[in-house]
Structures are given as structure tokens and as C-alpha cells.
Amino acid sequence: MYRFFLKRVFDLIIGLVALPFWTLVLVLIGTIIYFQDRGSIFYNAPRLGKDGKVFKMYKFRSMKMNAPDLRNDDGSTFNSENDPRLTKIGKFIRKTSLDETPQILNIIKGDMSIIGPRPDLPEHLVLYENNEKRKLEVRPGITGFNQAYYRNTVPWKKRIQYDIYYIDNLTLFLDIKIFFKTAITVLGRKNVFVEDNASQPIKGKDIDM
Fold this sequence. Notes:
Elements: H1 2-37, E1 42-48, E2 54-60, E3 67-71, H2 88-96, H3 103-109, E4 113-115, E5 141-143, H4 145-149, H5 156-168, H6 172-187, E6 202-207
Parallel strand pairs: 4-5
Antiparallel strand pairs: 1-2, 3-6
Helix pairs in contact: 1-3
């Protein structure tokens, strides 16, 4: 009942209630982003959604315009506190996770949930092995099991297995636990940047983040 109906109802109600408050964040953060380098406020990132459907995930742009796409050896996104691609406001919104807040719009549209696996890049679909496609059984979330308990401290493949664990144990109680654990993690700014995972980036195409 919760997984197939109430979860979506709760997402929609919370998203609509949060929207006016997020508008204030949009005005403040968006203005700073624009005036720092006169670029786009948002980065609309293509991501894999439920059942493998590709959607545009909204984020505040934290990187300079036309920044190169750097990846770790496992294909995950390069992530470093000293990343020269980050703008001044970009480093702050990354640490505080404010860059993810535009995904409230994705929740209202039905692309995402508040709690769920973080969405992968479309090209990651061909890299899934064995049961890893099960990650796509539910809507991706703004936050999830990995973000609450590990954030960026585990490699991508391990994160997928934790996502599957979440799907197999999905309940209202688990979502509540993840929600409050995420708040503690974000306020403590824990595990945002992990240098070991980002030590050998691989350059890809240019991106606007």
C-alpha cells in the first residue's frame, strides 16, 4: 500500500508544501549563481528514472560554464573539494546540498521521490550487471539510503547494492529513518568530498554544471 500508492501521495503533498519556501531559495541562490559568471542558473542533467526512463533532473549549477566532465575509474562523477571547476557559490551549495533542492520540481512532476536511490547517468545502463537493474524498480530520490548513511564514501557498485537493499526493505518507517539521518548528515556536512575516490579522474565531454 505504502510503496505503490501512499509514498507518491506523501511526495506530492510535501513537494507542494515545500515549493513556496524553495522559491525563496531560488531567488537568493539563483541570483548569486548568475552574477558570479553570468551563466545559467540550472543544470538540467539527464538521468535514469523508474523502469529506465530518461528524464531531466534539475540542479542548481555548481560548476563554471562549459566545465569538462571528469569521471572516476568506476565511471562515477569526479568529486573533490578542490575541484577547480566549482564556482565559489558552487562549493557552498555542494557542501550544503542546496544544489539538489530544485529536484522538488521533479518530485511534483512525478520523475522522482523524496527518498529513493540516487539516479545514474543514462550511459550507466549498459554497465549494470546481474541484479543491478533492479535499482530502476522505484523512482529515484533526492536522498536515499546511501546519502543518509554513506554519502560519497563507498564506490558506485557498492552503492547500487545498498539501493537494492533499500528496495527490498522499503517501508514508511525506513523512509522516515533515512529522512532524519539525511538531515543530520547534511547539517554536519559529512562525507561530501572524498579525495580517494576522485584521485584519478578521467576526462569526458564538456558539461555545464
